Amino acid sequence: MPHALIIAFGDQVKAWKAFDEVMPPEVPRVALIDTYYDLKMEAVMVVDALKKRLAGVRLDTPGSRKGDFAEIVREVRWELNIRGYEHVKIYVSGGLDEEAVKTLGEAGADAFGVGTSISNAPTVDFTLDIVELEGRPVAKRGKFGGKKMFGDVQNIW
């Protein structure tokens, strides 16, 4: 489940439910929970929306928002467990290396999306984010919404 799906719907609960409705039952429901709100709050929201059909949650790049990724994993795990969702796996992705995998595994993460750090060649690390939809500014947390001209983002500092 990409951020683009949630941004296209403009509401994470609607996106999670739409995914749940159209995917075959054998496809695990792994919900991305970091698009608009605090990850703990989105974890609570998704268990309320999908109940026992939820197989996992994915946390993607909370470190880019100056958070302590390991503490965020612990907090999400706690919130899932106290609500009876011990079976829900925690998947983490976004800028992970071998040290992050070790630390996040100890914090309670179950699976890891590792990309850039497995290459021994020089890499260019970038993202392609949806920031405008049908002329309306949109963006996930930590990003500036709306179309930009070169230099616009630097000028707001």
Structure, explained:
Helix 1 (3-9) packs across helix 2. Strands 1-2-3-4 form a four-stranded parallel beta sheet. The chain has a two-stranded antiparallel ribbon with strand order 5-6. The protein starts with a helix and ends with a helix. Strand 3, helix 5 and strand 4 (111-113) form a beta-alpha-beta unit. The protein has six helices and six strands. It has a single domain, classed as Aldolase class I (TIM Barrel). The model has no long low-confidence stretch (mean pLDDT 85). It is of the alpha/beta class. 37% of the residues lie in helices and 15% in strands.
Notable characteristics:
alpha/beta, TIM Barrel, four-stranded parallel sheet, two-stranded antiparallel ribbon, 6 helices, 6 strands, 37% helix
